[in-house]
Amino acid sequence: MICCMKHAVAASWLHKLMLSQSSRPTPLAAQAAGSEGAAHGETFNGLAAEPRARDGGPQPGEGARTLIKGGFLYAGDDANTVIENSWVLVVGDRIAAIGSAQQPAPECDHVIDAAGKLVLPGLINPHWHESFVAPNFERPDDAGLEPTPYSNGGDIEALGSMFAFISTVGQKLTHAEGVAIARWSMWTQLRSGTTALGDVGSANTADAMAQAALDLGMRIRVSRWGSDIMIPNGAKEFRRIADTQAQADDWAALMETWNDHSSGLIGGMPSVMGAFGSSDEQLIALRDIADRYQAPYATHLAPLRNETAAVQAVFGRTPVGRFDALGMLTDRLLAVHTAYASEEEYRRLLETGVNICHSPAHYGMLGEATVSETGQIGRFIKDGGHVSCSTDGDISYIGGMPEAMRAAHLGHNEAQNCNTACPPTLALRMATLNGARALGWRDRIGSIEVGKQADLVVIGIDDWRYRLGNHPLRTFLVAGGSRDVEAVMVAGRIVVRDGRSALFDEAELLTDYRLAVASARARIQRK
Ligand SMILES: [Zn+2]
């Protein structure tokens, strides 16, 4: 391939950033890595200002009454309300009334015709990492494919080293680069129907991601990637790799700036990478700041078969045991990929109401067995645990919440050997209301209920795939996907219409992203 010459130069830092398959640079990545770029300054095309509004059609005005009429509604509420021919009245930023065709529709200013469409709550992706600054070395023919550090139980030393590097990337970006990268990265999620993201640590900054969310009109809880130690394989002591206080200061700053932001769209969620990446001092700092703000906080917890022994050898406690000893198993904890807890720990996680989140569509890409090896997440679901699903993050678009729901529906039913383990409405709940709980926003979003924020997704179902089925949500999960999302509303504002942004030009956003990564990669490479 023409890109090979750049590979040796790029590999030193780029390799560390790769979250998935390793191989060689694509032509685009090589060009970007080798380019000094025209964009060393703080402005890119359209970036200094608000994203340029495109002709996206009318927006409901302040306090406007909009009727979404004729859709097949899955409300995603506790009653599991399903209305085949529905109407939903949105007034301003809230849902004001819900009904069926048998009931008279209320008066309104605008009608959105949803006949032949599914109407779902806005999808909530509580565990995500913005990582689009990293080049993609994947080869299309799978040549040179090797097991990732996540495979075969996990290489704890290699992962610790990689995560330590990721925790430093955000501060190497200019704010303008960070915003441009985050806008494109987050647009791929919004386009897929995700209306609220939970950042569990990114190769970007909280400020840039919050700004991108405001520009795109979506919700996010921002974070910073906390990781201050690593554990070499076979070690009895950890190695300190970052300044604990500096990372705690970042949490304090982002909470001060963004938690309960006046826009109503942004909050904070301090997070650490996991028990094998944090000292006790760092976990205590995480606990204390989350307590101070009564905010959710997040970690990957018991995610890999090999992690327990590595952590126990250094700390004398297991990963879950460390969090429990510090009083950190609470209903504000978002615990990700939790498949390797002991029986006693499993009971503690259930009784303390910890939010369990998993990313079933991502494991197969990395060679993890998180759903099937222990079946523990399926058990949490069966035992009434608070389980949400998510996409996780990667260095390119790897699917949205529709694909995560599909993998939850099919994967748990298969792993549990029973079709009632995760029916479609439960998969939807994992992608909506349970995610809202994990983000501490259950009273605000996560279902289509009167009084909640008007966050909705409209999906086309008027085609050959749906002709013989009775269950359009199932057909969407097994035969549909992110591309079928037609419209997205957040807080009563239409942000995606006809599969395109209603607020900005997608091509311009991509151009800005490319300029920003060229500039950022060139600088990082020189260091
Ligand atoms: Zn993750």
TrEMBL record:
One Pfam match: Amidohydro_1
Protein name: Cytosine deaminase and related metal-dependent Hydrolase
PANTHER family: AMIDOHYDROLASE-RELATED DOMAIN-CONTAINING PROTEIN, AMINOHYDROLASE SSNA-RELATED
InterPro entries: Amidohydro-rel (IPR006680), Metal-dep_hydrolase_composite (IPR011059), Metal_Hydrolase (IPR032466), MTA/SAH_deaminase (IPR050287)
Gene3D superfamilies in alphabetical order: Metal-dependent hydrolases, Urease, subunit C, domain 1
Keyword Cytoplasm recorded: no
Keyword annotations: Hydrolase
Top-level taxon of origin: Bacteria
Signal peptide: none
Domain called Amidohydrolase-related: residue spans: 118-495
GO molecular function: hydrolase activity, acting on carbon-nitrogen (but not peptide) bonds
Family: Belongs to the metallo-dependent hydrolases superfamily. ATZ/TRZ family.
